[in-house]
Amino acid sequence: MESYPNVFIFDHPLIKHKVSILRDKNTGMKEFRELVEEITTVMTYESMKDVALVPVEVETPLEKTVQYRVPEESVAIVPILRAGLGMVNGVHRVFPTARVGHIGMYRDEETLEPREYYCKLPDGIEGKTVFLVDPMLATGGSACDALAALKRRGCRDIRFMAIIAAPEGIAAVAKAHPDVRVYVSTLDRGLNEHGYILPGLGDAGDRLYGTK
Predict the structure, then answer these.
(1) Distances (CA, A) of 20 to 78, 132, 185, 189, 195
(2) Contact 56, 68 (CB under 8 A)
(3) How many angstroms separate the CA atoms of 184 and 182, rounded?
(4) Fewer beta carbons within 10 Å, N or C terminal of the chain?
(5) 0.85 cut: is pTM over it?
């Protein structure tokens, strides 16, 4: 796969372990949902290595000292509905005060093109570090459209996180939005004729919510 400067593929043994269970068709809904959250939490730590900090004065039991914190209200999470909802709690474990917006996208089963049907974002999101999250990055159409929607609303510091990605999806996002950092847990082989990732893990939304 072509290399892109703002695309980061994880190579972490713990993530590999959890993804192997996530893929298994015999993994039940409860465990699947927990694994998605756990993997997202690990990814969130890594994707925030360069986040801006502000100095604060803290008084320890021994003395006053200057320390550094992520500013309050500086992080927002935007899941692409519906599967992206499964990743929200994983980010909230790291940033429990993060505001949450929602972007609703669906994929036309014939054309494979994304369609936006809903967008509700927190006030002031343009000044926040935004995590756009979706477990699967397949063709990249929904991610590209969701990123464009965020940019139209003034967002500049956007990080896209996906658990499983196909090379086609990574290429599409990297070329359409080269300024966006893309964090992917696992890179898979590619897409089948229906636009599904192989080997993949099936439909993440269905497995998260038991709709099939």
Answers:
(1) 26, 24, 12, 15, 21
(2) yes
(3) 7
(4) C
(5) yes
Q: What is the mean pLDDT of the chain?
A: 93
Domains of the chain, residue spans: 7-209
Segment holding 117, helix H or strand E: strand 114-120
CB atoms inside a 10 Å sphere around CB 190: 15
According to the CATH classification, is domain 7-209 in 3.40.50.2020?
yes
| Residue 114 identity | P
Residues classed as catalytic: 107, 111, 203, 206
What's the maximum distance between 2 C-alpha atoms anywhere in the chain? 66
pLDDT of 170-200, one tens digit each? 999 999 999 999 999 999 999 999 889 999 9
State yes or no: cis peptide before 152, omega within 30 of 0. no
Question: Mean of the pLDDT values across residues 113-118?
Answer: 80
Other C-beta atoms lying within 10 Å of the C-beta of residue 167:
17
**For residues 113 and 145, what is the distance between their CA atoms, to the nearest angstrom?**
10
**Percent of the chain beyond pLDDT 70?**
98
Element (H, E) at 77: strand 75-81
Query: Strands 114-120 and 136-137, how do they pair?
Result: unpaired
Question: How far, in Å, CA of 194 to CA of 112, rounded?
Answer: 8
The predicted structure's pLDDT at residue 72: 82
